[in-house]
Design brief:
- The protein is α/β, with parallel strands linked by helices.
- The chain folds into three domains: about 5-250, Glutamine Phosphoribosylpyrophosphate, subunit 1, domain 1; about 250-455, Rossmann fold, CATH 3.40.50.10490; about 455-600, 3-Layer(aba) Sandwich (Rossmann fold), CATH 3.40.50.10490.
- Helices cover about 35% and strands about 25% of the residues.
- The strands form five sheets. An eight-stranded antiparallel beta sheet has the order 3-2-4-1-10-9-11-15. A seven-stranded antiparallel beta sheet has the order 5-6-7-8-12-13-14. Strands 19-18-20-21-22 form a five-stranded parallel beta sheet, with helices on both faces.
- Strand 23, helix 17 and strand 24 (about 500-505) form a beta-alpha-beta unit.
- Helix 3 (about 105-115) packs across helix 4.
- Bound molecules: 5-amino-5-deoxy-1-O-phosphono-D-mannitol.
- 5-amino-5-deoxy-1-O-phosphono-D-mannitol binds next to helix 10 and helix 17.
């Protein structure tokens, strides 16, 4: 939930760290700070607010000199967002400086003990407790910083990615991780540390992703030594060659990352099935699936665990897995699943869906499912993420970095992967006819073009957004495959415009939500060609009879709904089973334009963070 950056080398650290923080701001943005070793001492600037506020403060308060430094952008857990609680934090002697992403759960008892030993605390954070625990161990045991960190981390309970240095030994940074990501960039005579590789992508393509329960001592002259936190044993780390490029993590002329990511969907959907779907030959080949296909075909049921938008993708999957592969599916909020003592057996397959691969609740659900003997399959976007490592096998979506906090391209690429899995299983099980199977492969292959078509309605959707930007509430309705799309449309609107919105299965409207409808209530109805089309038309009539304002997503050429609705957003024709991939596009654009018109911070909505690495 926070972003951390560090640098040690021969360049000026400040611009590298500041730029890195800007790239990691999606992870948290309620306060930020930086600490630099300038050759004689530590300069520190920190502030409540965004990295741009930090920049102004650093301009005014510090010389910004030094080639060793740490930076942090925060999403508050312990202690309100203010200057004092911002990271980095000093130890009591002022020698050690730390940045931390995560939560130290037993910080209160450690703090009490440290206070008894004379330590004082300026902030309310768990992080300041950790740095003082390390200092206490370093002094008491008379050990080097790395050893003190290792001993301290064996005493703490919680999650962390930390980086720290000692001003008396300014040739090394010590880092460690458990449950929060940490990458080390390896350059020539310089090293970078960050929550993901984006802060150092223009400097090096080589990176080590620390695994859980690993720490590293990074020395300017001696390089990187990775050790196990538990027993201090040495680890031979794998050096990844990064595939990222700068263009992927910049806005590329768009006003916001969210808009760029919405427009990237034709490309990234194609990237996700490229080489895996050979439509004309009738082949779907997913490396991670083939070796374990029996697990799926023999499964009693599939349990999907995920959160937020990924959970909505799971709901779409429920329809297609059951429809095509005839395997019973349950879709669970990871946060509920992990705490309700679920019945899981060795005959269950659990699919965990996550864009970031770092969502704490999803990770915990995976661990629980594995403990109880289930086979766990991951659908993740971030390569090397905790979830991708924790699962038994899986398939990556190839959405590229998703930086806007509101998930867009992750959703459609997740559905793309899940569709391929469902079709492949149905083919192996013989639960889909050959012609239906072939038709779906060919149709899936046209989705990028259809999404491009759907994006052409952008100007019209902007006009609709203008009409409804001041509404206080929205209702989103859909049926069947498009019920999850209604939920996703409502979530998008809520999180970036702060307008209250609810998604419902259209037929459920009459069981309660219909009471909300009057002339002030915009109702977004997904009414594309489907088995339920007539029923949805009836629902639209019901809304109209109560003077609700109808914004309908319809199939190109539709005339019936066009007559009834106040506004329509057209999408190209698809089989109903694949329609979520196109019906979601106008809903993403609608929420985007409303949020822009309301002057919201689209890419960094209030109170949110891109990856939720805390419970
Ligand atoms: O990284 P994940 O897919 O695991 O994240 C899950 C949710 O936190 C995420 O989808 C969240 O709901 C988004 N802000 C939705 O736009």
């Amino acid at each position: 939930m926070c972003g951390i950056v560090g640098y040690i080398g021969n360049r000026e650290a400040y611009p590298i760290i500041l730029n890195g923080l800007k790239r990691l701001e999606y992870r948290g943005y309620d306060s930020a700070g930086i600490a630099l070793y300038d050759g004689t001492g530590i300069q520190m600037a920190k502030t409540k607010g965004k990295v741009s506020d930090l920049e102004s403060r650093a301009d005014a308060e510090i010389s910004k000199k030094g080639s060793l430094g740490l930076g942090h952008t925060r999403w508050a857990t312990h202690g309100v967002p203010n200057d004092i609680n911002s990271h980095p934090h000093y130890s009591n002697s002022g020698d050690l400086v730390i940045i931390h992403n995560g939560i130290i759960e037993n910080y209160a008892s450690i703090k009490k003990e440290l206070i008894n030993r004379g330590y004082t605390f300026k902030s309310d954070t768990d992080t300041e407790v950790l740095v003082n625990l390390i200092e206490e161990i370093k002094k008491k045991e008379d050990v080097k910083l790395g050893k003190a960190v290792q001993i301290a981390l064996n005493q703490v309970v919680g999650a962390y990615a930390i980086a720290l240095f000692d001003r008396k030994k300014p040739d090394e940074i010590v880092v460690a991780r458990l449950g929060s990501p940490l990458a080390i960039g390896i350059g020539e005579n310089e090293f970078f540390v960050a929550s993901d590789a984006t802060p150092f992508i223009e400097f090096t393509n080589n990176a080590i992703y620390l695994k859980d329960e690993e720490m590293a001592i990074i020395r300017l002259k001696k390089g990187v030594k990775v050790r196990k936190i538990k027993d201090d044993s040495l680890v031979d780390p794998y050096i990844h060659e990064l595939q990222l490029n700068l263009e992927q993590i910049e806005k590329g002329g768009y006003d916001h990352f969210m808009l760029k990511e919405i427009y990237e969907q034709p490309k990234v959907i194609k990237d996700t099935y490229r080489g895996r779907l050979l439509a004309n030959k009738g082949i779907i080949k997913l490396g991670g699936l083939e070796d374990h296909i029996n697990k799926f075909t023999n499964a009693d049921r599939i349990i999907i665990v995920a959160c937020g938008t990924s959970w909505h993708a799971g709901l779409v999957a429920e329809y297609i897995f059951e429809d095509w592969a005839r395997i019973p599916v349950e879709v669970e909020y990871a946060s509920e699943f992990r705490y309700r003592n679920p019945v899981i057996t060795e005959k269950d397959v659990v699919i965990a869906i996550s864009q970031s691969g770092e969502t704490a609740d999803t990770l915990a659900a995976i661990k629980l499912a594995k403990e109880r003997g289930a086979f766990v399959y991951g659908v993740c976007n971030v390569v090397g993420s905790s979830i991708s490592r924790e699962t038994d096998s899986g398939t990556y979506t190839h959405a590229g970095p998703e930086i806007g906090v509101a998930s867009t391209k992750a959703f459609t690429t997740q559905i793309t992967v899940l569709t391929m899995i469902a079709l492949r299983l149905a083919d192996v099980k013989g639960t889909i006819s050959h012609s239906d199977y072939m038709m779906h492969l060919r149709e899936l292959d046209t989705i990028p073009t259809l999404v491009e078509e759907a994006l052409k309605s952008d100007d019209k959707i902007r006009e609709i957004a203008y009409e409804f930007k001041d509404a206080a509430n929205f209702l989103y309705l859909g049926r069947g495959y498009n019920f999850p799309v209604a939920l996703e449309g409502a979530l998008k609107l809520k999180e970036i415009s702060y307008i209250h919105a609810e998604g419902y299965p259209a037929a459920e409207m009459k069981h309660g939500p219909i009471a909300l409808i009057d002339e002030h209530m915009p109702v977004v109805v997904i009414a594309v060609n489907s088995n339920h089309y007539e029923k949805v038309v009836s629902n639209i009539e019901e809304i109209k009879a109560r003077k609700g304002k109808i914004i309908a997503v319809v199939t190109e050429g539709d005339t019936t709904v066009k007559e009834l609705a106040d506004y329509i957003m057209e999408v190209p024709k698809t089989p109903e089973t694949l329609s979520p991939l196109v019906t979601t596009i106008p809903l993403q654009l609608l929420s985007y334009h409303i949020a822009v018109m309301l002057d919201r911070n689209v890419d960094q909505p209030r109170n949110l963070a891109k990856s939720v690495t805390v419970e």
